[in-house]
Design brief:
Elements lengths: L3 H9 L23 E9 L10 E5 L6 E2 L16 E8 L6 E7 L8 H6 L5 E6 L9 E3 L12 E8 L4 E12 L2 E11 L9 E4 L9 E6 L9 E6 L3 E6 L7 E4 L6 E2 L6 E2 L1 E7 L6 E7 L5 E7 L9 E2 L11 E9 H11 L7 E4 L6 E5 L2 E5 L10 E5 L7 E6 L5 E6 L2 E6 L4 H6 L2 E5 L7 E5 L6 E5 L2 E5 L4 H6 L2 E4 L1
Parallel strand pairs: 16-17
Antiparallel strand pairs: 1-2, 1-22, 2-3, 4-5, 5-6, 6-7, 8-9, 9-10, 10-11, 12-13, 13-14, 14-15, 18-19, 19-20, 20-21, 23-34, 24-25, 26-27, 27-30, 28-29, 30-31, 32-33
């Protein structure tokens, strides 16, 4: 997360796309024995209107990335500040649960860095899934409430701790302690990302040095001498090793010899260290966000993390179209990769839906109601993707919002609303339609209900309804053009 101003202040002081029910039968687990075949990156893009939400990217080789979901938002926070940064992807050891844990922060809303650091949210935003593609609604996890004077909770990470059989969630909180106000790393333990232990201090660099970003990677076979390695943005990019997540850590070194620091050492000033092991071999990438120059992530790689002298810079990488800010990388099994690419890998165009008899008006959502209006602002309220029908019927479509991914046009009591997919068969049926020849003009389109085939989408008083169409007026009201 870009925090130049935040660090100054501290010194002075991640809609789901297919928000599915978790009670449905889970697909084949990602067993620890299954080989990894690809990579998934979760990230945010910056302080734009939609930048502080969850974006995803995919890679086959761990170096060259392709944006998923047409480069658009995949998950949108509707809780807390209604924005998220620094998402961490977490998989259970059995591969039957996944979580995204993110910072609850939206600078684009006008929040200052000082307010965010000193009077910000003390909660993290959590999504949960059984298959890595269908995610729950977001919820808040108020991890820092128990820290005296806590000003925020930033840059969360989580790792499974085999020694205790639960997860260690760790993050940065800005607070006064021993007469010094700065960011320190705290942690809680949890088994379900709902209930958790009281927060405990995890990393304090001493003196006035703050620390915001830190991430741990587990290394099979303890290559380099340690089971776990930790990279922290603490003025330098400090690398440490340990054989116990909650035990003592040994400083291995930093990256100053490569001309890389977190500010104290000058050179290429970076943040957001992000680990990933290359599939099938003992080689690791440490991705670093060149936020000071705006050049985005760069990887350095090593086959032995026991010494920082083993890192090498890379130039054979590509980051895709979106700017990728502080996130995390999950190695994917073949089954997971198939699901991810099946859900977000195809390119589906953005459309508007134009009224036939009021051709200056387009279908749009407004406060989750659905109507036809002229001069829609913001324009994305009238932009949709016609995706394969949620009811899984051949030749059908569902109409998904562009700026509220995971939200679809559905009828309820024959009235229309924009609603999050709850994973039920009722929702799927209500949000599925057949595109048929326009009832008023065959070169246009009408939308026939999947579960009420005698009814079509039509507007009445400019509001969308699902009605029986029986006269000239209603046929005109039920006719639309799908435009790009």
């Amino acid at each position: 997360m870009s925090r130049t101003l935040a660090r100054v202040g501290a010194t002075l002081t991640v809609a789901c796309l297919a928000f599915a029910s978790l009670s449905v039968a889970a697909p084949k687990k990602a067993s620890a024995l299954d080989p990894f075949t690809g990579y998934l990156m979760a990230h945010f893009t910056g302080e734009s209107a939609n930048g502080e939400q969850i974006y995803l990217a995919h890679s086959k080789d761990g170096l060259r990335w392709t944006d998923l979901n047409n480069g658009g938002v995949v998950l949108r926070s509707t809780v807390g500040t209604r924005g998220v940064r620094d998402p961490a992807l977490v998989r259970s050891p059995n591969g039957d649960r996944y979580w995204i844990v993110a910072t609850d922060l939206r600078i684009a809303s006008g929040t200052s860095w000082s307010d965010a650091a000193n009077r910000g949210s003390t909660s993290l935003v959590v999504w949960e899934s059984t298959d890595v593609v269908n995610w729950s609604a977001p919820r808040l996890m108020n991890v820092a409430a128990g820290i005296p004077g806590a000003g925020n909770a930033w840059a969360p990470e989580a790792i499974y701790n085999a020694a205790t059989g639960d997860y260690v969630v760790y993050w940065a909180t800005n607070s006064l302690r021993n007469g010094v106000t700065k960011h320190r790393i705290w942690y809680v333990r949890t088994s379900d990302f709902r209930s958790f232990t009281a927060p405990q201090l995890y990393i304090d660099r001493g003196s006035g040095q703050g620390i915001i970003d830190t991430q741990i990677v587990e290394v099979p076979g303890s290559v380099g001498g340690y089971r776990y390695y930790r990279a922290s943005a603490d003025g330098h990019i400090t690398i440490e090793g340990s054989n116990s997540i909650l035990g003592s850590w040994t400083t291995i070194g930093n990256l100053s010899h490569m001309g890389i620091s977190n500010g104290t050492g000058g050179g290429n000033v970076v943040e957001g260290p992000m680990w990933a092991q290359f599939n099938g071999r003992n080689e690791w990438a440490l991705w670093l966000d060149q936020y000071a120059t705006g050049r985005g992530y760069m990887p350095i790689t090593s086959t032995n993390l026991g010494s920082t002298q083993n890192f090498r810079t890379r130039t054979d990488y590509a980051m895709g179209g979106n700017r990728k800010r502080h996130g995390s990388i999950l190695n994917l099994t073949a089954a997971e990769e198939t699901r991810v690419l099946g859900r977000w890998g195809s390119t589906i165009p953005v459309n508007r839906i134009q009224s036939y008899n009021y051709q200056d008006r387009y279908v749009r959502h407004s406060n989750f109601d659905v109507r036809i209006d002229p001069n829609v602002s913001p324009a994305q309220d009238a932009q949709f993707r016609l995706v394969p029908g949620l009811a899984a019927a051949s030749g059908t479509v569902s109409i998904e919002s562009v700026n509220f991914p995971g939200y679809y046009l559905r009828h309820y009591g024959f009235d229309f609303q924009l609603a999050a997919n709850d994973g039920t068969s009722t929702f799927a049926g209500d949000a599925t339609f057949r595109q048929v020849a326009g009832l008023a003009n065959s070169s246009w389109t009408s939308f026939q209900s999947y579960n009420y085939p005698d009814r079509h989408i039509r507007h009445y008083g400019y509001v969308l309804r699902l009605d029986v169409v029986s006269d000239t007026q209603s046929r005109g009201d039920a006719t639309f053009r799908v435009t790009t």
